[in-house]
Design brief:
alpha/beta; 49% helix; seven-stranded mixed beta sheet; 10 helices
Length: 344
């Protein structure tokens, strides 16, 4: 037993003392870490709260009524004065347009003062109606030099068409090519030629026509109508000088409220419980005097278009002092011998 290590009583007391000292130190260190994490978390949360409160305060400050300085008040008054002058200029412009100072007016002033046209006749057409156009050119509508001689008599005839939804595509190019050969198109650059856009076409036609030609009358004709041209010229000569003339085959009829039926009117409820249209000229053949065409041009942006162009034009004429002229010679489907139009 002499070779075995022995532990003295003093060494055992030293180790026990070290163990007792280490345990509280470890606990204090752990407690310090937990406290540090807690304080850091609170500081982080407080920072987020401060940011949130700062944003809320900023919004509240922005929403509070601003105390205007003298410079601010002068700026506001200046803006109001500028707005007033803009309104006055717009009113002057509207008055000038209503008196004939329209786009291209300066270019036309000399020629229009020397020779005012009797009528501008716009024949509606579409991209797929070339055969109809050729048939018209071979029947009642003059071509080439004969078309120019008719213009010397004061009557302009043009096929009226808009542009394709895909500007510059083959549809537009074909119309441009045909027009280069025949020179008898009036292309509405701002109008999209489509079935659903047809009610708006009247606004674009009358507006553009009155800006390009100075005439007594502006005539809209569908592309399924044949015209007795000399008879029409005689009718218009008889009406020359008559302002506010809304001429056509006047009619009214039932408002179709059932979706899917022909001539369905989506806004049928606006026409009252009786579901009857107001008096209006048949859309196949409509004649307007110059001042009514000017009215459409000036107010085209605010004129309401319904599902059908004849109803749309009739609603526009109800808003002005127009003279309704029901001329049976313009009832193209009638059996009258002296009518000036017929179904093609």
């Amino acid at each position: 037993m002499e070779g075995l290590p022995t532990t003295t009583k003093a060494e055992r007391r030293w180790r026990s003392k070290n163990l007792q000292t280490f345990t509280p130190s470890l606990l204090m260190t752990l407690f310090s870490c937990v406290a540090w994490l807690y304080v850091a978390g609170r500081l982080w949360q407080d920072a987020e709260n401060r940011t949130l409160l700062a944003n809320i305060l900023k919004r509240n400050i922005e929403q509070r009524p601003k105390v205007l300085t003298v410079e601010d008040k002068l700026m506001v008054l200046g803006c109001k004065d500028l707005e007033r002058r803009v309104v006055e200029v717009e009113m002057d412009l509207t008055l000038a347009k209503s008196q004939g100072y329209l786009k291209n007016q300066l270019r036309q002033s000399k020629s229009s003062s020397e020779h005012k046209l009797l009528a501008v006749i716009g024949v509606y057409t579409g991209f797929g109606s070339r055969l109809n156009r050729n048939r018209f050119r071979g029947s009642w509508m003059p071509r080439g030099d004969a078309l120019k001689k008719l213009e010397e008599r004061g009557v302009v005839i043009r096929f009226v068409i808009g542009r394709s939804a895909n500007r510059g595509d083959s549809l537009d190019r074909n119309i441009d090519e045909e027009n280069r050969k025949t020179m008898d198109f009036f292309i509405l650059e701002s109008h999209e030629e489509a079935e659903e856009e047809l009610p708006k076409k009247a606004k674009f036609f009358f507006s553009a026509a009155v800006q390009n030609w100075d005439a007594e009358f502006y005539v809209k004709v569908d592309d399924n109508i044949d015209i007795d041209l000399e008879g029409l010229i005689g009718l218009l000569e008889h009406r020359r000088g008559q302002d506010s003339a809304y001429i056509g085959c006047m009619k009214s009829g039932e408002v179709v409220s059932e979706e899917g039926r022909p001539w369905y009117e989506p806004e049928w409820w606006k026409f009252g419980d009786e579901k009857s249209y107001f008096r209006h000229a048949s859309g196949s053949f409509v004649i307007l005097s110059k001042n009514l065409a000017q009215y459409i041009n000036i107010n085209s942006a605010s004129l309401k278009a319904y599902a059908h162009d004849d109803i749309s034009m009739g609603s526009w004429m109800m808003g002005v002092q127009s003279t309704y002229i029901d001329d049976n010679r313009l009832c193209c489907s009638s059996i009258r011998q002296d009518k000036v139009c017929s179904l093609a």
